[in-house]
Design a protein that fits this description.
Layout: E1 3-8, H1 16-23, E2 29-32, E3 41-45, E4 48-52, E5 65-68, E6 73-74, H2 76-88, E7 98-100, E8 105-106, H3 109-122, H4 134-142, H5 155-175, H6 184-198, H7 205-214, E9 219-222, H8 246-253, E10 260-268, E11 271-273, H9 286-292, E12 311-313, E13 315-316, H10 317-327, E14 331-335, E15 345-354, E16 357-359, E17 373-380, H11 397-410, E18 414-418, E19 426-428
Parallel strand pairs: 1-9, 1-10, 2-5, 2-9, 5-7, 6-8, 10-14, 13-15, 14-18
Antiparallel strand pairs: 3-4, 11-12, 15-16, 15-17, 18-19
Helix pairs in contact: 3-4, 3-5, 5-6
Bound molecules: guanosine-5'-diphosphate (GDP), 6-O-phosphoryl inosine monophosphate (IMO) and magnesium ion.
Amino acid sequence: MPLDIVVGAQWGDEGKGRMVDLFAGKASIVARFSGGDNAGHTVTVGDQIFKLHLVPSGLARPHTLGILGNGVVVNPATLLHEIDTLRQGGVTVNPDRLKISPAAHLITPAHRALDAAQEASRGQASLGTTLRGIGPAYMDKTARQGIRAAEMLDEEAFADRVSAHVEAANRLLTGIYGTEPLDASRVASEYLDYSRQLKPYIGDTVGLVAEALQSEKTVLAEGAQGTLLDLDHGTYPFVTSSNPTAAGALIGLGVGPRWVREVIGVAKAFQTRVGEGGFPTELDGEMAIRLRGTGENPWDEFGTTTGRARRVGWLDLVLLRYAVRVNGLTHLTLTKLDILSGIKTLKLCVAYERDGRSSPDLALGTYEMGHYRPVYEDLPGWEQDIQDARVWNDLPPQAQQYVRRIEALAGVKVGWISVGPERDQMVQLVSVE
Ligand code: GDP
Ligand code: IMO
Ligand code: MG
């Protein structure tokens, strides 16, 4: 005991990586359970900035074991590159520190090519995916034709499998999408090389998690993406192809619900989104630039994975309340509160209005989101910089009021408030052992 789950409560990029890094201080295992290298998690430790896509953020701590669970889709090229980059930054990631589930599915260049071809064929209706091959890899998984990590153990059969998979994808690429085919034998030999390097990383991840839990060690499930990008509960079809919500951690790691202690939702103090889809509180003009930043600070709102400018808006409590329900959140972490310093009047979206009627909850999940008009409540802002705040009383009364109002409207306690990207730039209101 116990399993603590950290999930994004919005559309991703809430600051999960930096929170997982904080919680990992007390965890034995940190495990990714869904998504792949569409994720971009930034961890700042002193003058080092780790930008991680696949390796769990908790590995920035030297004592942790990292796991890529069965729910993850693994691009071997990204993983090996990331391991190498971390080594150059002084962080060792070897088979003693990272285990990949034999049941995790692999992403190949064919998945990436199909992702690009599908996006192009959608034209105006494109989803704005990260083009990392995520959708096609999960399609192969659900079609029961994907390639799993365990297949890397048998070299000869693996190369044949990869080659046949690329040839099958080529038929779609050339026949349906009219794009260039890939060289199947080149991809097969590239993957054979990856398999030789990654074999030692494959391990009994279900067993490792179970043993840790049985011996009272803390296991931290690291969410990628966010609740509103969940395939079932998000703003479909503008979602990712996995379940980044809390229940996804159980399936994606192979662990039962009895072990769960905390479900911590990470939310920014405002709202952001990359990619297409509805966004009722979206802003443009001066205030959007103010919230997004211009790109000169590492934390400005430009995607870690794709570099795209993130869409920004006021915090949406209708959606946050929804995230509290869908995940069964026990606590909320509020990140980037420091970004709001100096804004005279802050707005919180407390309800949606449609056809003259307003409601504090979504009528049909996120189904008709494009038609909702946000109803705002104004709160006074604060002038001073809060990056040095470390305890509740360091925060100006207006910031305290902003946090308390969010708690009341979302129906969950805020346990942590982050006021800067650094490990210690945190106001901790609860303690988790
Ligand atoms: P993730 O995908 O949820 O892990 O979030 P990202 O790492 O993609 O994006 C969050 C960005 O905000 C990163 O650049 C973090 O270093 C930065 N960040 C996190 N918390 C804070 C905070 O409280 N204040 C500021 N200024 N930056 C933060
Ligand atoms: P982290 O873990 C923000 C978005 C994409 C697109 C949609 C589908 O850093 O929070 P996909 O490539 O998954 O098929 O794209 O999901 N998306 C993210 N947005 N943060 C992420 O990860 C994301 N991962 C996927 O922009 O809208
Ligand atoms: Mg991110």
